[in-house]
Design a protein that fits this description.
This protein is α+β, with helices and mostly antiparallel strands. The chain has 2 domains: about 5-105, Hypothetical protein ph0010, domain 1 (Glycoprotein, Type 4 Pilin, 2-Layer Sandwich); about 110-175, Dna Ligase, domain 1, CATH 3.30.1490. The chain has 5 helices and 8 strands. The chain has helices at about 5-20, 40, 70-85, 140-145, 150-160, and strands at about 45-55, 55-65, 100-105, 110, 125-130, 130-135, 170-175, 175-180. The protein has a 4-stranded antiparallel beta sheet, with helices on one face. Strands 4-7-5-6 form a 4-stranded antiparallel beta sheet. Helix 1 packs parallel to helix 3 (about 70-85). It is globular. The protein starts with a helix and ends with a strand. About 40% of the residues are buried.
């Protein structure tokens, strides 16, 4: 679990990165606050950064696997969500005051042996088969009011797979996330 100080450092870093890339500069440098490079923030962890304008999604990108220190993953995914999400136009300077930012720091993935044990709103899902993969964060099921079957169907769709791919040999994983913003 991240401390309130570590969460505050990550949020400040994410906002700084968004502001930098929107202004045409590179993402923010390493954080400098005393807790900013704590062992928890230096540990490799998957992370997603979500940007919203009101209730409308404006960008959401992340790293599924723990391949970078958490602080780096948050910095880079904040910049990417602002400028590189292919579903949206890049964020403009005029949009910054109305944006909300949310960080999802992921726990390690674990295989799902029994889909009936999936807890919508607590578990996130990641599915892959062949070269296709898709991920839905835990909060998506809550926001959409989905039950387990609907959550499974939508993670398959996110991957571009048939709705029941989770029954037909696709690998299915669960994770939880510390979500804050």
């Amino acid at each position: 679990m991240l401390t309130p100080e570590e969460k505050a450092a990550l949020l400040a870093l994410a906002w700084q990165s968004v502001r930098h890339v929107v202004a045409g500069a590179p993402p923010a440098a390493a954080p400098t606050a005393p807790t900013a490079l704590s062992p928890a923030l230096q540990a490799a962890r998957g992370a997603f950064v979500t940007l919203k304008a009101g209730e409308d999604l404006r960008g959401c990108l992340g790293l599924v696997q723990p391949v970078r220190p958490l602080w780096e993953a948050v910095r880079d995914m904040a910049a990417a969500a602002a400028r590189e999400d292919p579903r949206f136009d890049p964020i403009t300077p005029a949009e910054l005051p109305a944006l909300r930012l949310e960080i999802s720091a992921l726990t390690p993935m674990e295989p799902v042996a029994e889909p009936s044990t999936i807890r919508p709103g607590i578990d996130g899902l990641y599915i892959r088969r062949g070269g296709a993969s898709g991920l839905l964060l835990p909060q998506v099921a809550t926001e959409q009011g989905w039950d387990t079957a609907t959550f499974l169907r939508h993670v398959c769709r996110k991957a571009g797979l048939p709705d029941d791919a989770w029954r037909q040999g696709a690998e299915l994983f669960r994770f939880t996330a510390e979500v804050f913003g």
